[in-house]
Amino acid sequence: MTITALSLENVKRLTAIRITADGKPIVLTGNNGAGKSSVLDGILLALSGAGLEDPIKHGATRAVIKLKIEGKEEAFNIERIIRPGSRELKVTSADGKPISSPQRFLDSLVGSIAFDPLEFVRLKPKAQADSLRSLLGIDTTAIERKKADFYAERTVVNRLIENLKGQLDGIPEHAADVPDEEVSASDLIKQRDEISLQISKRDSITAEIARSTQQQAELVARIAKGKALIAQLEGELQVITGAISGDRDRLSSLQEAHDALPPIDSITRKISSVDLTNQAVREKRRRKEVEKALAESHAKSEELTQKQKDADSEKARLLSEADLPVPGMEISEDGVTVDGVRFDQLSTAQQITTSAKIAMRSNPKLKIILIREGALINRANTEALCELAEERGYQLWMEKFSEDVSEKGIHISDGEIVAVDGKEVG
Question: Quick check: 101 pLDDT over 70?
Answer without folding.
Answer: yes
